């Protein structure tokens, strides 16, 4: 159990966000209080069984009930309430802060960066945020209820179809944090993760600017690009800067820069990508992506090679 504390990638015990830090201290305070009370009860029980005095008389008994059954819980619970109430207030966000809309899908994350001025930038299964700035996450779902949790940065928030829940996050340190779905949402619930990359504000602005540009135009003429359309991949997936702009499946613009395939399921190597294209259901049971068992292996490899070029 102690070793779990060494995991800084996905751990509520290693907080690097304002809200996660508050939750961390609340957890330790409650645990310390619980241990203290348990010790107190143990001491009282020991005294009661080892005391040479006889049974309490009626008046002493009533006093015991009054103090331990009335006064003590009232004081402890009031103290806890006063301690916890300020921490339940959602963090305030300035109006000009970055808003990122995330929709939970079976079983991936549709990400949309909105800075209010231009058309939103679409992405999938990876969220980048600037360090030290408050980021507002508008969270919803398209199919079933999911739950959005980045243990190192903030608490959990449900994603409910037809409703938008708001989570305000402020990262304190640059790094990569892992987020997960924490509401059972179907067969591949456990295969629904995402990376949150907290970047220095300047680096983030530069990345956002670069990400808005179309992907490399030269790669559009390869056989993989043609097969991508021939097999109808473009009916679901978008690649920015090409004519493919469907929004049913994950956006594949800059797939070549992704750290994972299938929302944290596999390493995004060319072989894994080709295997996933032919038989998505084998890697993500219940996923909406159809399998293509009759697709020749070299076709899958060509599409995978083209996708890896998208940067
Ligand atoms: Cu989405 Cu569990």
UniProtKB/TrEMBL annotation:
Record carries keyword Metal-binding: yes
- Gene3D superfamilies, per the entry: Cupredoxins - blue copper proteins
Organism whose genome encodes this protein: Novosphingobium indicum
Return the similarity comment.
Belongs to the cytochrome c oxidase subunit 2 family.
Q: What does this protein do?
A: Subunits I and II form the functional core of the enzyme complex. Electrons originating in cytochrome c are transferred via heme a and Cu(A) to the binuclear center formed by heme a3 and Cu(B).
What lineage is this protein's organism placed in?
Bacteria, Pseudomonadati, Pseudomonadota, Alphaproteobacteria, Sphingomonadales
**Which reaction(s) does the protein catalyse, per the Swiss-Prot or TrEMBL entry?**
4 Fe(II)-[cytochrome c] + O2 + 8 H(+)(in) = 4 Fe(III)-[cytochrome c] + 2 H2O + 4 H(+)(out)
Name the UniProt record assigns to this protein: Cytochrome aa3 subunit 2
Give the transmembrane region(s).
25-44, 64-85
The listed locations are: Membrane
- Kindly report the protein's main subcellular placement as a broad class: membrane
Residues forming the Cytochrome c domain are 219-311
In what way does this protein cross or attach to the membrane?
Multi-pass membrane protein
Quote the Pfam families the UniProt record gives.
COX2, Cytochrom_C
NCBIfam families listed in its UniProt record: CoxB
UniProt keyword annotations, A-Z: Copper, Electron transport, Heme, Iron, Membrane, Metal-binding, Respiratory chain, Transmembrane, Transmembrane helix, Transport
Q: Identify the residues that the record assigns to the Cytochrome oxidase subunit II copper A binding domain, covering every copy.
A: 95-210
* PANTHER family in the record: CYTOCHROME C OXIDASE SUBUNIT 2 (PTHR22888:SF9), CYTOCHROME C OXIDASE, SUBUNIT II (PTHR22888)
